[in-house]
Amino acid sequence: MKRRIALIALLLLVVGAVLVLRWSPGGYAAQDRDSTMAPFSAQHWTGTDELGRDRTVRVSAALLIGLAGATAAAALTTAIAGCFGLAAAFSPSWVAALLIFLSDVFLSLPWLFLLMMARSLLPLTASPLDTAVATFVVLAALGWPACARVIYRGALALRSAEWMIQGHACGLRTRQLVRLHLLPHLRSLLLPQFLICVPAFIVAEANLGALGLGVGEPLPSWGSMLLELDNSALLARSHWVYLPIALLIIVLLTLESFATEVETHA
Amino acid sequence: MRSLFRSSILCAGLLALTSSFASGQAAPRQPGEIAWAIHYDPKTFDPAKVDEQASELVRYLTGGVLLRLNRQTQQPEPQLAQSFRISPEGTLIVFKLRAGLRFSDGAQLTSADAAWSLRRVLNPATHAVVAEEFLSPEAVVIDTPDALTVRVHLPKRIIGVEKIFDEIAIEPANRPSEGRVTSGPFAVADYKRGQFVRLIRNRNYWRRDAAGVQLPYATGVRLDILNNREQEISLFLRGEYDLIDTLPAEYFGVVAQKSSSAVHDLGASLNTEQMWFNQSPAAPLPEFEKSWFRNRSFRVAVSQSIHRADLARIAYNGHATPAFGVISPANAQWHNNGLKVPPESIADANKILAAAGFHRGGNQLYDAAGHPVKFSILTNAGNPARQKMAAMIQQDLAQIGMQVTIVALDFPALIERLMHKQDYDVCLLGVSNAEPDPSSMMNMWLSSSANHQWNPSQKTPATEWEAEIDRLMQLQASSPLPRVRKQAVDRVQQIVADQQPFVYLVYPNVLQAVSPQLRGVQSSILSPGPVWNIDSLRREQDRPLRGSL
């Protein structure tokens, strides 16, 4: 029941955001310079930002970009982790040890520094969309080691399961074994990992954006919108400045609730 | 992963809360002490080696000088020197020191100390930035006919030479002390890296007020090192700080709401905010892009498309003045009142671009060879006003079909790209002009200079108009005739307005916050702002000190 409520809440948010963007006359970048930091009005439901951009439209775009980017990055990182974990579990012990060592090295790397480096390598003329894609790809490329270890442990236990031995004895090829038996059994591990990665990547992007390293202007993102909270002068002018953080927390709690339910029922 | 996720949510919440209620704790104030914040540690306390603002402020507060530029009248006034005289040909300056001068440690101050300090600054081994202002520092000769006279022999006339002595602190001969033994109002007493610099009153300071009370009134100065504007403002509002020298425009209203008598908008500053196109032949940019940036029509069209009034109103909350030229109207003596500038007009910009071979394809502008006009604007991270201006310019230029991306880099990365790699398209930054005389801008305008930003270190001027600027700037720096200098500087301003190597955006206003408890403040748009007469400042509850401590 909780899972259904969480899913419905998330869907409502996404549909609402799509509708807002669909019906917005100017788009997320349009600057109404005569209405900067405007309060609630029929034209701007949650007011405008310092450049006169509609806050509802920008928060909606940030929500969709964050969710889409984080979902894609989580899928990618789960796939990398799955391949890595399976490769380690079904390899000779020395290869497994080497792969696990490699994942440990990745875990110990200063990820924030790496993210900053990777972001700074982008050409200056990279479009805002390119910066968004690059940000989430880098997050995916750095987020797999913890998942890989979990999947490795799960796959290791399955390796010596009776049905695996029986499958081998029946002459099934490795590819068939993986597709027909192993992956369905690992689903209970892969799905929660994927679902946990989505909010984690949303938060990571928000943190990067708050450091000025996330998605480029004028494309809105959680991070760039949270930057406004660092300015008490703005907080004094409009309470709508808190909208992005409030919505971010709602989205994260919804995602976490959904992930918890899936994990419990898996 | 789960716990990481939960803690991340917590962090996000905390980020919001901590940033909303940023406060802090200043070091305890000593009785009679004036306190404010500087934003980073001074790199040096050696007055001869100062090359950045924090060190410059400490030198100003501690260093005794022969002459001091009055920040209100903009005229040099005798300090340690009782009088000075410049010979008619401008190659000899004679300073007569006051009798009975002493350093803060009680030692006598004579012409030998002054000569030693001047020679130390002129010595190439010291690497003193101020030495460059003597043009040929190695040819300057100092002598001391007696204990109270210092003579400075220059190889040739230097316009405004007396202002250079405002930047040379007189130290005890052969005893450089990094500001601990001084002849100025204060001396360095304590320094904790990243925390504060504490200055203590110089008991032997030469100056007294009209009633005979020895200055400075304050027992000391505490400069907290604090790179957090929120915290600085919070501490000012709590009365922990006496002033904020450069108040960011977005906070002006907040402070004014709490204490309207504390904030002052002194109008346009001498500083400029501008953007420029990379015209360096060494830049690793495609040739077609370089040809846009070298094209005068392209630069003028960009300039005409930018709504400067919006930049001033929105990015600076109205605390800036739209800029069209090199010299701010605040610099009344040198500002060209008859300057003709390209008018703001999208229609005119489109016409100029069309005449220069550019054409529109839908919302995108293309050059004659069919390349879409796309470039990036580079600026420094952590400056909200510049980032807002960049976002507004992005929209303005979209109206003439130019696609702009904005890149904010931290300062070291920015400088690396600007000065070393020259790997950028357009840069948006500001220039701080410490003094009104155009001679101080020589390093920016001479084509041979490394600070000639759009095309630095040219062996010979790349264009005729740059050659003309070189000639005019040299003329204004060497001519003794004010009229000739003014004409030369007016012409430079007109060339820059015609060619738009710098597209000037705004002159930020001088915004200061001064506690009503601080008495004796005479505001000035020149650095160091409200503390330029530091020896006459005191807090209201601190009664003037009689005699020496």
Tags for this entry?
heterodimer, A: 266 residues, mainly alpha, MetI-like fold, 10 helices, elongated, B: 549 residues, alpha+beta, D-Maltodextrin-Binding Protein, domain 2, Dipeptide-binding Protein, domain 3, 8-stranded mixed sheet, 4-stranded mixed sheet, 22 strands, 29% helix, disordered N terminus, disordered C terminus
What is this entry, summarized?
The complex is a heterodimer of chains A (about 270) and B (about 550). By secondary structure, chain A is an all-alpha fold.
Would you kindly provide a written description of the structure presented here, covering whatever features stand out?
The complex is a heterodimer of chains A (266) and B (549). With 266 residues, chain A is mainly α. Chain A has a single domain, classed as Orthogonal Bundle (MetI-like fold), CATH 1.10.3720.10. Chain A is built from ten helices and no strands. Chain A has helices spanning 2-23, 55-89, 93-108, 111-120, 128-159, 162-169, 174-210, 222-226, 232-237, 243-265. The radius of gyration of chain A is 22 Å and the shape is elongated. With 549 residues, chain B is an alpha+beta fold. Chain B has two domains: 33-242 and 515-539, Periplasmic binding protein-like II (D-Maltodextrin-Binding Protein, domain 2), CATH 3.40.190.10; 272-509, Dipeptide-binding Protein, Domain 3 (Dipeptide-binding Protein, domain 3), CATH 3.10.105.10. Helices cover 29% and strands 21% of the residues of chain B. Chain B is built from 14 helices and 22 strands. In chain B, the strands form six sheets. In chain B, strands 11, 12, 13, 14, 17, 18, 19 and 20 form an eight-stranded mixed beta sheet that branches. In chain B, a hairpin with a 3-residue loop joins strand 8 and strand 9. In chain B, helix 7 (296-305) packs antiparallel against helix 9. The model of chain B is unreliable at 1-23 and 543-549 (pLDDT under 50). At the A-B interface, helix 5, helix 7, helix 9 and helix 10 of A face helix 1, helix 4, helix 5, helix 8 and strand 17 of B.
